[in-house]
Design brief:
The protein is an alpha+beta fold. It has 2 domains: 5-356, no CATH class; 471-631, no CATH class. Residues 414-426 have a biased composition (Polar residues).
């Protein structure tokens, strides 16, 4: 049903347009008439045309299939959204219970789900989702907390970064003694509690969620800045989070389109199993369809199939809040689904509910007490990578709701053949990408190639830094205590340190054997950030990424450092900016183009250089080295 101009005019007469009052953040909740339209192994965004690696619950239009497009969704015969004009699809991994006594697997029924549509306080014009826009948030490969999730709030809420804990769990309880998440947990053996809310955290809670009519709930925020230059289907690069500017305005980069921010909440009927496990004694029994016993890999996908005129009216005129989108001005009774039961047939012929010996797709259970956290151990019918970012998701991707982590489709219109998905949500991409000169050597390419990152990886902030090394700097470096093994340089506006990489406990390959790739040596695993540690060329378009392919590309283009991330992203540069060396266990994602190898991780870069050294600029490591150097110098006085 198309939303008529008469309806638009009618709605305008009963409410002041939200677009005329941008100083307020408004919202309306979209509800669904049935639990889902299908539960099946399909993900048309991440693994089009083939079964996804794990099972999803799917909501929305009946046009959903393994290969569905926006056009297919608009042709849906029905939808289980309460608003008939929304034939979009929303999907996320199914939840299962593993009996601690028998080891058998049972599906957990979904109580219900809601999609909150937030219309940001912004100076932008918020526009309806264009038909076919594909978004993915989260990382199905995560079994340990992502670097972004454990950073402090002040650092995480930077331009281009998703909000802290954009993928999280809520566990309503009658009381919180003992706590749902152990106090002080680092996330390696248990989930991490929210310091301000006892009922929320990252990773599954180790408790029965027994709050009234509110069992375990998965919460996922979607990004709200669409980059039309990337394209509707380029889910790894087409989305980002708005930047918070003065006055609390959430604005998108110039040339991007500000769309509604979706917050998806999914309630699971976990209380059915409360008498079958003992919190604190038995292993946490709930498992996501991808085989995740930690809950860190929760994710979701969205493909737009809205009547755009109808959604635009809701954006411009509605602030119905929790009363529901069906109460928005201009929404009449004939626009609502009442008693309509919309379902479709599963896309795969297999058991996905009831009692089973193993998860559909034969996904092994990994994480926490089950061990096996290596990404390479996860079956990959489709391969996905989550945006580092991003959001978006997929980290390279942002967390797709489908199968593996990070697909290789990096260009508009490109579809991943070996996909896994991944990637995230709330503020904020930074200023629109712009070119800047390299901060290292003059021989390096001056123009930076900046690709918009998706939900996982947000638009990077290009920074210009002029470097001027002096003879005095070389002299100062020579006086350092030999323990530091570092060279100190004088830099205009920044200080650069070239430090020998600390000893590695793990190599970039799954077999811990590959130290030299394409003539470059492995320098270690380094933290990435919203502005990108390697920002001279971001997300090089190489198809399925391997360490060798990335190294060869960066070396050929004159860069001294190459880095891979999220299993499917390649970055080039001449120094690591605002980075530091981290434990090699964070670089744990299998390379899309060479599965036995590891290509970085979530906000983590596998870095290679000619001599196995990495130049650091503006990082914690740099500050620590300088402090160490100054301390020894003071002792000599």
């Amino acid at each position: 049903m198309k939303f008529s101009n008469l309806a638009v005019l009618a709605s305008a007469s009963v409410a002041a347009a939200r677009k005329d009052k941008p100083d307020e953040r408004t919202f309306a909740v979209l509800r669904f008439t049935d639990q889902m339209i299908v539960q099946t192994r399909a993900d048309p965004i991440v693994s089009p045309g083939q079964p996804s690696s794990h099972v999803h619950h799917v909501l929305g239009g009946s046009g959903f299939s393994m290969s569905s497009t926006g056009k297919d969704l608009m042709a849906s015969n029905c939808t289980n959204a309460l608003i008939k004009g929304d034939k979009s699809n929303y999907w996320f991994p199914s939840l299962y219970f593993r009996d601690p006594k028998t080891g058998m697997i049972e599906d957990v029924k979904m109580f219900y789900a809601n999609a909150y549509y937030f219309f940001d306080k912004t100076k932008d014009d918020i526009k309806a989702f264009p038909v076919g826009l594909s978004i993915l948030v989260g990382d199905p490969f995560l079994r340990t907390p992502s670097l972004a999730s454990v950073e402090d709030k002040a650092d995480a809420q930077q331009p281009g970064r998703p909000p802290v804990n954009s993928v999280r769990w809520t566990c309503p309880r009658k009381n919180f003694d003992p706590p749902s998440w152990p106090k002080g947990s680092d996330g390696k053996l248990h989930g991490i509690p929210d310091p301000n809310n006892k009922g929320e955290g990252m990773g599954f809670p180790d408790a029965n969620c027994d709050g009234y009519a509110a069992p375990l709930r998965g919460d996922i925020h979607f990004p709200s800045c669409y980059n039309p230059a990337a394209g509707l289907t380029n889910y790894k690069q087409n989305m980002a989070f708005p930047t918070e500017e003065d006055g609390g305005y959430l604005n998108c980069p110039k040339g991007w389109i500000h769309v509604p921010q979706i917050f998806l909440e999914v309630y699971w009927d976990t209380l059915k199993f409360q008498d079958r496990w003992a919190p604190g004694k038995d292993p946490q029994p709930f498992v996501l369809a991808e085989g995740d016993a930690t809950g860190y890999s929760n994710h979701a996908d969205f493909m737009a199939g809205w009547d755009e005129a109808l959604l635009q009216n809701i954006i411009d005129h509605c602030d119905a809040g929790s009363n529901g989108m069906d109460k928005c001005p201009g929404i009449t009774a004939d626009m609502l689904n009442t008693g309509n039961h919309c379902t479709i047939n599963p896309q795969t012929d297999e058991q996905v509910t009831g009692v089973m010996k193993k998860l559909p797709g034969d996904n092994p259970i990994t994480g926490w007490s089950f061990g096996g956290v290596s990404v390479g151990s996860i079956p990959d019918t489709d391969k996905t990578s989550s945006g580092p970012a991003p959001a978006g998701s997929s980290a390279t991707n942002q967390g797709s709701g489908s199968s593996s982590a990070g697909s290789s489709a990096t260009n508009q219109g490109q579809t991943p053949k070996d996909n896994l998905s991944n990637k995230a949500s709330n503020p904020q991409p930074a200023e629109s990408p712009k070119s800047s000169s390299s901060s290292s050597s003059a021989a390096a390419p001056a123009a930076k190639k900046l690709l918009a990152n998706n939900a996982a990886a947000q638009p990077a902030v290009a920074q210009t830094t002029a470097v001027a090394e002096t003879a005095a700097a070389a002299t100062a470096a020579a006086t350092q205590d030999s323990v530091c093994k570092a060279k100190l340089h004088t830099v205009y506006q920044t200080v650069t340190v070239t430090a020998a990489a600390p000893g590695e406990t793990a190599q970039p390959s799954g077999s811990n054997s590959t130290r030299t790739v394409g003539g470059f040596q492995y320098a270690g695993c380094f933290r990435d950030s919203k502005t990108r540690a390697l920002d001279s060329e971001i997300r090089a378009n190489l198809g399925p990424v391997s360490n060798e392919k990335c190294v060869n590309h960066c070396k050929t283009n004159g860069f001294s450092l190459a880095g891979t991330e999220y299993g499917g992203q390649c970055y080039c540069g001449n120094e690591l900016k605002n980075s530091e060396k981290i434990d090699s266990s964070y670089c744990n994602k299998a390379c899309e183009g060479n599965k036995p190898e590891m290509c970085g991780g979530s906000w983590a870069l596998s870095v290679f250089s000619q001599d196995g050294l990495a130049s650091l600029s503006g990082s914690k490591t740099r500050r620590n080295v300088l402090k160490h150097f100054r301390h020894h110098r003071s002792l000599r006085r």
